[in-house]
Design a protein that fits this description.
This is Circadian clock oscillator protein KaiA. It comes from Symplocastrum torsivum CPER-KK1. Keywords: Biological rhythms. This protein is mostly helical and 297 residues long. The protein folds into 2 domains: 159 residues, Rossmann fold (3-Layer(aba) Sandwich); 101 residues, Orthogonal Bundle (Methyltransferase, Methionine Synthase (B12-binding Domains), Chain A, domain 1). The chain has 10 helices and 5 strands. The strands form 2 sheets. A 3-stranded parallel sheet has the order 1-2-4. A two-stranded antiparallel ribbon has the order 3-5. Helix 3 links the parallel strand 1 and strand 2. The longest helix is centred in the middle third of the chain and has 26 residues.
C-alpha cells in the first residue's frame, strides 16, 4: 500500500489487519519502489492513492514493465486530460470484455479498480475484484504506431511479467476455489518471424544471454534459478520461438564453451551434463505451448 493520507492508511491497516492479509505500508515513493523491487514477484495487489502525484509513480511502473492488480483511490476532483507520455504503453493493454474501458477511464491499466475514500470499509471486496479483473487482462491488442516505437524486448518482458503474475494468482485461486486457470493470447506482431532483422537479432542475442546465465547457474544452489527459466521460457513463448531454435541457442553456447575449455586445456566432456538444462527448458516451453491451446480445440 502506498497512500499519502495518514488517516486513510490507518483506516485501511485496521480493516486489513485480519490473518487473511499480509499488508505492507510504504510512506514514500523510494520506499515503495525498494519494496516492490524486492517482493514484486510475491505481491497479489497494490493499493494506491492519487493525490496529484501518482502519475510519475505509474509511469515508472509501466517503464519497468510491472503490471499487478491494483486498487486506486483517485482524486476527488474530476481528472483533466492526461497521460500523453504513457499513451503508447497504455493502449497496448485492454481488458478482454465486449466493451473495454476507454483509456481516459483508468490511470494504470484497464483492469484497475477505483473507489472513493468513503468506500474504504469495503476494500476487501475491491481487492478481490481487482485480482479477478487482472486475470482477464490481455496484452494481445495492437502494437503502438511506428512513431511511438516500443522496444520489442521490453514489450516481451512486460508481457512475460504479466503472464507470470496471472499464472501465480490463478494457481492461488485454484488451491482455494478450484479455479480452472486462464488462457493467454499472444500478439503475432511480436513473433520472431514478424520482427525486423535488427529486432530479430536483438531478441535472439538477449535470449542467448539469458540462457547462458541459466547454464552457468544450473548446478548451483541459486534460489531464483526456476524464476530465470520461467522468464526465459515466457519470452520464447510470446515470440513464438520453436524448440529447434532453443536447441540452436544451446548448441551455439556449448560450442563456445567447448572452445574455451580447449584453450584452457580442460576436458570438455563436462558439457554433456548441460543436456539436462536443455531438457528442463524444453519441458517448460512445451508445457507453455500445451496450455495455450484452448480446451475446445
Amino acid at each position: 500500500m502506498f497512500v499519502h493520507s495518514e488517516s486513510l492508511a490507518q483506516s485501511l491497516s485496521q480493516i486489513l489487519s485480519s490473518d487473511r492479509y499480509t499488508l505492507h505500508v510504504t510512506g514514500s515513493e523510494s520506499e515503495f519502489f525498494d519494496f516492490l523491487e524486492q517482493y514484486k514477484q510475491q505481491l497479489d495487489c497494490l493499493v494506491l492513492q492519487d493525490d496529484g502525484s501518482l502519475l510519475p509513480v505509474i509511469n515508472r511502473l509501466l517503464e519497468q514493465g510491472t503490471l499487478l492488480p491494483v486498487v486506486i483511490f483517485p482524486k476527488e476532483i474530476e481528472r483533466t486530460a492526461h497521460r500523453a507520455t504513457t499513451h503508447h504503453l497504455l493502449k497496448t493493454i485492454q481488458i478482454t470484455e465486449n466493451s473495454p474501458p476507454s483509456q481516459d477511464d483508468y490511470l494504470f491499466h484497464a483492469a484497475e479498480v477505483q473507489l472513493g475514500v468513503t468506500q474504504s470499509p469495503e476494500i476487501g471486496e475491491f481487492i478481490e475484484k481487482a485480482i479477478a479483473q487482472f486475470l482477464s487482462l490481455s496484452t494481445a491488442s495492437s502494437l503502438p504506431e511506428p512513431s511511438a516505437a516500443v522496444d520489442p524486448t521490453a514489450e516481451l518482458a512486460t508481457r512475460s511479467f504479466l503472464i507470470q503474475q496471472q499464472r501465480r494468482l490463478s494457481e492461488k485461486l485454484k488451491e482455494r476455489l478450484g479455479y480452472l486457470g486462464v488462457y493467454y493470447k499472444r500478439n503475432p506482431q511480436l513473433f520472431l518471424r514478424h520482427l525486423s532483422q535488427n529486432d530479430r537479432q536483438k531478441l535472439l542475442e538477449n535470449l542467448k544471454l539469458e540462457y547462458r546465465e541459466i547454464v552457468l547457474k544450473y548446478f548451483s544452489q541459486e534460489d531464483n534459478l526456476n524464476q530465470k527459466i520461467d522468464n526465459f521460457v515466457d519470452k520464447a513463448f510470446f515470440a513464438d520461438i520453436s524448440v529447434s531454435r532453443i536447441v540452436e541457442i544451446h548448441m551455439e553456447l556449448m560450442e563456445e564453451f567447448s572452445k574455451q575449455l580447449k584453450l584452457e586445456g580442460r576436458n570438455e566432456e563436462v558439457l554433456l551434463d548441460y543436456r539436462l538444462t536443455l531438457i528442463d527448458v524444453i519441458a517448460h516451453l512445451g508445457e507453455m505451448y500445451r496450455r495455450s491451446i484452448p480446451r475446445e480445440l
